[in-house]
Write a structure and sequence with these properties.
- There is one protein chain.
- The protein is α+β, with helices and mostly antiparallel strands.
- It folds into two domains: 52 residues, no CATH class; 153 residues, no CATH class.
- Strands 3, 4, 5, 6, 7, 8, 9 and 10 form an eight-stranded mixed beta sheet that branches. Strands 1-2 form a two-stranded antiparallel ribbon.
- Helix 4 runs parallel beside helix 7.
- It starts with a strand and ends with a strand.
């Protein structure tokens, strides 16, 4: 066993006293930490301070650099950019007897919402909150940050519409959240959800919804998210 003593100061509060914390690691982890310290390159103090103040980004870059990328099975491959206008894509969803929530329609009318001009295929994967190694009651940012730290990528926002159109065999009562950069409308942030209730008129198709991603929205172990495979 190897014991290290760390200085835990407050990065943004100079008046706060430093706190010393001791942690014990197994011998292999201790040797690895020692090797990292002994081979640390010279880093300017301002860059070090930036990493100190952003531990999540530091963890992500260490994960990407030190761990081999995981091999992810492709769940579904869809085509972006066909149809290649928001209006034609929206009409195609409606013609397929799928429902688009009124909030989604309003969001799609914004000029900032763009789609690919040329057809392009993208591979997608579905992961539950539990499969990402998170406990119940986590926020949207927590889910996205964990997926990115494991080598996955957020989807282009167009995936929400194209997946709704192309996922015609979605099982009844399934609901998938599409992980993207948050969509903004009327000062609030949302993400797409692809659902199929299995009731009434929705038996023939499904729904395209948006869900608030505020700090009051939480996700549980069984809830599933769509991510893009890296390098596309």
């Amino acid at each position: 066993m190897t014991t290290f003593t760390f200085c835990k100061g407050s990065a943004g509060n100079k008046k706060r006293k430093n706190v010393m914390e001791t942690k014990t690691f197994d011998s292999q982890t201790g040797r690895f930490i020692s090797a990292v310290i002994m081979n640390m390159p010279e880093i300017p103090s301002d860059i070090m301070q930036g990493w100190i103040e952003n531990p999540t980004a530091l963890k992500n870059i260490l994960t990407q650099s030190l761990l081999p990328p995981e091999k992810w099975p492709v769940w579904k491959t869809i085509t972006l950019g066909s149809p290649n206008t928001v209006e034609s894509l929206k009409n195609s969803i409606l013609i397929a007897k799928m429902h688009i929530d009124n909030k989604v329609k309003a969001l799609l009318n914004q000029e900032a919402f763009v789609i690919c001009e040329e057809p392009k295929q993208i591979d997608l994967i579905v992961m539950s909150v539990e499969q990402l190694g998170l406990k119940k009651g986590v926020g949207y940012k927590d889910v996205c940050d964990r997926a990115i730290s494991r080598g996955l990528e957020l989807c282009p926002v167009e995936v929400g519409l194209q997946l709704r159109l192309q996922y015609k065999d979605q099982p009844p009562k399934e609901c998938l959240s599409v992980a993207t950069e948050p969509l903004t409308y009327n000062g609030e942030s949302f993400h797409f959800q692809i659902c199929r209730d299995g009731y009434g008129r929705l038996d023939e198709g499904g729904e395209l919804l948006i869900l608030d991603v505020s700090q009051l929205t939480f996700y549980y172990r069984h809830e599933r998210f769509v991510f893009a495979l890296p390098g596309q």
